[in-house]
Amino acid sequence: MAELMEAAAAVIQERGFEVATMAEIAARADAKIGSLYRFFPSKEAVAEALMQHYAEVLQTEYAAIHARAADAGPEELADILIDLLVKLYPQTRAIRALLDSRTDWTEIRLRFRSLALAGVKTALKACAPDLDDSDADDVAAVVLNNMKTMVGMTMKDAPTSPGAPDQLRLMNQLYLAAKLAPGRPAA
User: Fold this and answer.
1) Radius of gyration of the chain (CA)
2) Distance between terminal CA atoms of the chain?
3) Domain count, the chain
4) Which SUPFAM superfamilies match (predicted)?
5) What is the CATH number of the domain that holds 149?
């Protein structure tokens, strides 16, 4: 089943969900189409299984980050967060294609965004327990967008230059140092 899901992720990422076919997924996995249908009765079932898997991967990674965040300084937390989506990209490479493909997946998109924002916010609050909830929401949104930008730069999906990822990393470090450091000025 893991091979089928890996093949599905590759085909969906390369071709897009709407264009990908069950036959292509089976061929990529070097499996018979009947084997694919035995586990997944439709392409939508494959997509749902991939989304569930991606949510579990993200939750596991955030749990590990939360465990480290209380002992991390703002700059270290900034690096951990900015690298998270890049690190997960090989395991979650079809997520963008899935989320962008279906207009009826608005609820799924919102759940994923909420999961990601909650994961970042929890890490921020673990690092800086006195951070105001409203500020934590705002900072989490900025950091999440920086994380997405880093994936785009790293995978060459966004306009970039050789030094731009390092500049984004530095920007994220400085931003979190200013927002999370003890004695920081009030916003």
Assistant:
1) 19
2) 50
3) 1
4) Homeodomain-like
5) 1.10.357
